[in-house]
Amino acid sequence: MTIDRNLSESATPKQVRPLRVATASFIGTAIEWYDYFIYGMAAAIVFGPLFFPSASSTAGTLASFATYSVGFFARPVGGVIMGHYGDRLGRKSMLVISLLTMGLATVGIGLLPTYETVGVWAPILLVTLRFIQGIGVGGEWGGAVLMAVEHAPENKKTFYGSFPQMGVPGGLIIANLVFLGLTKNLSDDAFLSWGWRVPFLASAIMIVAGLVIRLSIEESPDFEAVKQSKKEQRLPIVTVLKGNWKEVLLSAGAFIGINAVGYIFMAYLLAYTTVGLELKRDLILTFTLVASLVWLAVIPWASALSDRHGKATVLKVGSVGLAASTLILFPLINTKNSAFILFALLVTAVFMGAVYGPIAALFSGLFKAEVRYSGASLGYQVGSILGGGIAPTIATALYASYSSTTPIGLYLTAMTSLSLACVWVVTRKTN
Q1: Listed residue (130, 112, 403, 418) closest to 253, CA to CA
Q2: 203-242 burial, b for 16+ CB within 10 Å, e for fewer?
Q3: pLDDT tens per residue, range 109-139
Q4: Angle 153-3-31 (CA atoms, 0-180°, nearest 5)?
Q5: What is residue 218's DSSP assignment?
Q6: Each residue of 210-234: pLDDT tens digit?
């Protein structure tokens, strides 16, 4: 079984405007990840005192990040549900549903009463809406990636498959710009009182724009070929678990490292640097924004290199670099030197892009078209739980226990080393 064979065996000769479809996947994905990331930023800054006020500062942050993790445990649920219908009814319809699910939950968070107003119902409602967010984003990734990859020419599948991957740093950039603007223009009291709600409520505008874009694109030609040949599976997830469980586990393992580092980068560092190191919030948001731009730029570049030189080479080099970057990340940040902090974030961003870009086409190529949505989504989302879903919570707990970032660095090194081993096995099987 190879990537090229799996992706080509169901493809139709007609390639329908791949750049347009890939760009639409990028825009829609960026909107959904904006929704997801503003939750992480709010969890780092305001959810502790607003929804868990009776806890200490550390306990409040830990509880806040625990609600953050809830979304990750919902992601496989969304992946299974939307993967099932995406393999049976089509990729496009599931992308519309995932966008609506995520957007409505995000707006709902912006309207939530706090603990001071409704007591224990505030965190209960917060957790519920976070779970719904997780379902939405759980179904998003597989559909967006498959639409881009399955419309792409055979020799550029990795490049076009990187467009929805760019939506992740794209969403992070938008979220950072919004929070940075609010931080610079509002007092701390105003931000805590009502300013934090603005990014969530602004999602309503983005939902409308995203729906217009997603409704305008064509269904995947690979899925149309599955329908014409009547190869739809009655229970795609069962077919995957029976015939491709090794691929699911390897996919999850390959994704754990990049996802763990990514969510330390995107969520935990904001809390650690502003609370633990007492650095200015706008400085860290600015540095994260700059590093996210680098991450965004590296993704398509690394993916284009993969189409020319093979995914194995790029992914192995990127994975080794990512593992090495975890050893210097916190030591450089702990210097409190702005130049060293920025350097640490930029190095991390480069290697995150080198791994994250090609991994979409890699996962897509592991599964046949009739079960591809279910298989790729399940591997990706299980990896997201074991990687990013628990990383901020583990990092907070480790720092609280040892008053040191060394255990956090060792934890990230272990996760990225595990992923390197899985990448090595997967690329041997598929290249």
Answers
A1: 418
A2: beebbeebbebbeebebbbbbbbbeeeeeebeebbebbee
A3: 999 999 889 888 988 898 899 899 889 888 8
A4: 65
A5: P
A6: 888 888 888 888 888 888 888 888 8
